[in-house]
Design brief:
heterodimer, A: mainly alpha, B: mainly alpha
């Protein structure tokens, strides 16, 4: 989207807004599709995304800076974040306190000493690689692509992180 | 990368670390969407990227958002089509009014000539004079007519109903 189109959009130009909706509604719908259940719910989220974008005189849309990221990339982040918020709102209610067995509510008076962790044992990159590997079940090629690095770099990062963890939590401790 | 047995052990080590970190750290605020988008496009500096990676490691559910954002450019044209109703609803969020504010201007008044102003002032003064003269004349007439009636009624009252002072003097004398 050209800068002048964006300027017209945040100025409240109706034609610019209609063009923006037509161009990016499909992208937003695709971005939220994996997070919501059915078609109508996806379209509700789509509506919520557009409401957020134009709310308070286009406050959110005005924070977008084309010099820092592409519009489709930014819109995908905003759309998925909105979908998560909608999901959180629609989450089924928690069980009432009276329904919980009393033994589960018992509070033991045991003081647990917090585990002392060396500061920055793992670098942010090492933590992210391990998270992607063990929590998101991504393979090395996917991680390398996501982080824009060589697959060998991912293996090396993983190896070094594991050495540190073994040294810290190993049986000799 | 590693054998399955090692992988299970590594996974356990990671879980141990993650639990410990989760207990030690408080909740960090989510980064700005623009920062996450810039990270997805590999546009951030190393230090800025480290902050995002540190946050992502604690919020693994958002990793998929970043991955989806990274490939979103390719999806702009090939994305699924929303229904016409959804599009119309979204378009209706911005009304067709013209947002430019038109300044209000008073219509220019033609300058009046001096003689016209003078005639206007004289007319006002003359009308005030006429009104005050008419008011004075009416007031004088009303006073004269009211005063004449009062004098006539006082005479007739004296004739038919003399003042009590004459008889009151007689009464005092007789009683004494």
């Amino acid at each position: 989207m050209a800068d002048k189109d964006l300027a017209a959009l945040v100025a409240g130009n109706k034609a610019a807004w209609d063009g923006f909706v037509r161009r990016y509604a499909g992208l937003i719908l695709s971005a939220v599709r994996t997070l919501v259940r059915e078609g109508t719910e996806a379209e509700d989220v789509l509506q919520e995304v557009f409401v957020r974008l134009c709310k308070d005189d286009f406050r959110l849309l005005k924070t977008y800076d084309p010099a820092r990221a592409g519009l489709s990339t930014w819109l995908t982040i905003v759309a998925r974040s909105t979908a998560r918020d909608v999901q959180r709102r629609h989450r089924p209610p928690q069980s009432a306190l009276d329904d919980v067995p009393e033994r589960l509510l018992a509070v033991s008076d045991v003081h647990v000493e917090p585990l002392k962790l060396p500061k920055d044992l793992l670098s942010p990159r090492q933590q992210l690689v391990l998270t992607m590997l063990y929590e998101r079940d991504m393979d090395v090629a996917e991680i390398a692509q996501a982080l824009n690095v060589d697959p060998q770099t991912v293996r090396s990062t993983h190896h070094k992180a594991m050495l540190k963890l073994r040294a810290h939590f190993g049986p000799e401790r | 990368m590693t054998e399955p047995k090692d992988r299970a052990e590594e996974n356990a080590l990671w879980r141990h670390w993650r639990t410990a970190v989760a207990n030690a750290r408080g909740a960090a605020p989510a980064p700005d969407p623009l920062l996450l988008a810039a990270y997805a496009e590999h546009r951030l500096s190393e230090s800025a990227a480290e902050d995002i990676e540190s946050w992502l490691a604690r919020h693994p559910e958002v990793i998929e958002d970043v991955l989806a954002a990274g490939i979103s450019k390719a999806r702009v044209g090939a994305a699924e089509e929303p229904s016409a109703g959804a599009l119309a609803k979204a378009m209706a969020l911005v009304s067709g009014r013209d947002p430019t504010v038109v300044p209000f201007r008073r219509p220019a008044r033609p300058a009046s000539p001096v003689w016209r102003v003078a005639v206007g002032r004289v007319a006002v003064a003359a009308s005030l004079l006429v009104v005050s003269l008419v008011g004075f004349a009416l007031g004088t007439d009303a006073y004269t007519s009211l005063n004449g009636d009062q004098q006539q009624s006082a005479l007739s009252q004296d004739l038919f109903d003399p003042p009590i002072g004459i008889f009151s003097g007689l009464g005092e004398e007789s009683s004494s």
